Amino acid sequence: MKPLACIVTGLLGASALLLEGSWRPAWADDALAPPPNASSSPTNKAASTTTTRWYGWQTLAADLPASVLIMTAGSVDNVTLRQATGLSGFALYAIVPPVIHAIHNRGAIAGIDVALRLGLPLVAAGIGWQIGIASRDSRPDDVVYESVKPLVYALWGLLVGAGTAIATDSLLLAREEVVVHAPLAPAVAWAPVLSPREGGATAGVAGRF
After folding, report:
1. Domain limits of the chain?
2. Which of 89, 108, 156, 181 has its CA at a distance of 20 to 30 angstroms from the CA of residue 147?
3. Looking at residue 104, what is its pLDDT?
4. CA atoms of 119 and 171, how far apart (whole Å)
5. What pLDDT shows up at residue 137?
6. What span, in angstroms and rounded, lies between the C-alpha atoms of 121 and 156?
7. pTM for the complete prediction?
8. 71-115 pLDDT, tens per residue?
9. CB-side exposure of 136: number of CA atoms within 13 Å?
């Protein structure tokens, strides 16, 4: 039996030398190795969703001072100052909000906004003018009022049209789609490790985080 014991001892020693004190299965290496294409791995790909963001407060920030300037222009006695005040209010109303849309990379909406802000007040003013003409009294008590009645109705239509354009722009047009990226989930891999040593073996777990 002594030769058999020597053979067994020799085989165990040779195995220990080949293993160099450390052994783990091939599938453990595969588990710890990075994926062939980390960018296409589901664990490394950031999940993204699309949401709607409202920026109508930016257009309202221009429309509020514009409305104040236009409304106060009529009460200014100096003609030059009255014209400057009215033109400044009109510029804030007609130019600044479309520029805000363009800054948000929404050129088509900017064009629609210009058409809405210029066209809707004119259409409403035309409707008011026609209503003023149709509602004239043939035998008026106040001849002066009846003579300017179409103009008064046209001005009211102008104000209603401008207010409708401002509200439509802020509530409906000033909304953009934005992509929200979720944080990357950490790629975690682990595998058991067995390390034979003299007089025994060491077992553990190896991981990659």
Report:
1. 56-173
2. 89
3. 95
4. 18
5. 78
6. 10
7. 0.63
8. 998 888 888 999 999 999 999 999 999 999 999 999 999 999 999
9. 16
Distinct helix (H) and strand (E) counts, the chain: 7, 4
Query: CB neighbours of 184 closer than 8 A, spacing ≥ 6?
Result: 44, 46
**How far apart are alpha carbons 21 and 74 in whole angstroms?**
95
* DSSP for 54-95, written as a single string: E-HHHHHHHHHHHHHHHHHHTT--SHHHHHHHHHHHHHHHHT
User: Which two three-digit tokens encode residue 163?
Assistant: 């207010």
What is the DSSP secondary-structure string of the chain? -HHHHHHHHHHHHHHHHHHTT-B--HHHHHHHSPPS-GGGSTTTSPPEEEEEEE-HHHHHHHHHHHHHHHHHHTT--SHHHHHHHHHHHHHHHHTHHHHHHHHTT-HHHHHHHHHHHHHHHHHHHHHHHHHHHHT--SS-S-HHHHHHHHHHHHHHHHHHHHHHHHHHIIIIISEEEEEEEPPPPP--EEEEEEEEETTEEEEEEEEE-
pLDDT for 138-173, tens place per residue? 777 777 777 888 999 999 999 999 999 999 999 999
Q: Which of 90, 96, 98 is nearest to 67 (CA)?
A: 90
Separation between Cα atoms, residue 69 and residue 91, nearest integer Å: 10
Mean pLDDT of the chain: 78
Per-residue pLDDT of 65-74, as tens digits, reads 999 999 998 8
